[in-house]
Amino acid sequence: MAKRARLIYNPTSGREEMKRRLPEILQRLERGGLETSTHATSGEGDATLAAAEAVERGFDVVIAAGGDGTLYEVINGMAEKSHRPPLGILPLGTTNDFARALGIPKHWEFAVDLILQQHTRTIDVGKVNQRYFINIAGGGSLTELTYEVPSKLKTVIGQLAYYMKGLEKLPRLRPIELNIRSKEQDIHEEVMMFLICNSNSVGGFEKLAPDASLNDGLLDVFILRKCNLAEFIRIVSAALRGEHLNDPHIIHFKTQSLQITSPDYVQINLDGEFGGTLPCTFSVLPEHLPIFVDESGTSTYK
After folding, report:
1. What is the CATH number of the domain that holds 80?
2. Is 53 considered catalytic here?
3. How far apart are CA 124 and CA 72, in angstroms?
């Protein structure tokens, strides 16, 4: 008996490529034995509701087509459920950090074929208060950029939009006072930003968390201590090369959970989306969600 799949897609994602490709994608899935119905998202939060409904209706497979924002919403719709069907990813958005971290091909035909091969890997999911993230949680001046970039701009100029916003914001970088508590660390100091990584690919920084693993049951925590603009630029350059871990401005540790509080107003960024404000408890749900990946483990993001 053919398996039933629910394809949740963002029609405006990645220069609207998904909308153009939909008939071919559906045909390829059907030929591969997946009876597929679709849900086009209509606004913020819609993909979360659609994913929750797909699980409740007993679909065998859920497919998220779009960028990291769509994927973030779909995961938030699935993570609470006691039964979680495997998730397929078609990375057709402006930013596809998570697909890159998993080696899911960027080309839609290869990504569809990977789903049809039905080989899964069960990955950790991060939890922040009552929300979930799959790639990264962060806070501090620079992490606020991603949701300040208007979505039309994001679609048209892609990754560049983030960097332009970043450069414009650099002179306004200000430290925040943080209290961070975990089994491993008790930190109270002024910091520029903090990042909590589940995977190793963040915002095009492939080497930010070089030894982060998606199924080790741990979160990689990076804290950038208070620094001036010149130091900040030097550290970011080092991070692009993966040479930041020994910098005295960087605190790095792994943990299963941590609490962060601040007397300041600090917004949280979850997988590039606004995720509320501090205080927050961050934890990891080990091996929580099956995702279709390349069986050989050698697939590259291309």
Report:
1. 3.40.50.10330
2. no
3. 14
Per-10-residue mean pLDDT for the chain, 302 residues long?
A: 93 84 97 97 96 98 94 97 97 86 91 96 96 90 57 53 56 85 96 88 64 89 88 79 83 96 92 90 97 73 42
In a domain, 296, yes or no: no
Q: Model's pTM, two decimal places?
A: 0.88
Looking only at the bridges linking them, the beta strands covering 257-261 and 176-182 are: antiparallel
Residues in the chain: 302
Domain total in the chain: 2
First to last CA, the chain: 33
Containing structural domain, residue 88: 3-118
Both tokens of 153, joined, read 């701009």
DSSP tag of 241: H
Q: In this structure, are 194 and 241 located in the same domain?
A: yes
Residues 185 and 49 in one domain: no
Handedness of CA 12, 17, 22, 25 (dihedral sign): negative
| C-alpha–C-alpha distance, residues 273 and 283, integer Å | 18
**Catalytic pick among 17, 206, 273, 287:** 273
Query: Which conformational region is residue 216 in: left (phi greater than 0), alpha (psi within -120 to 50 degrees), or beta?
Result: alpha
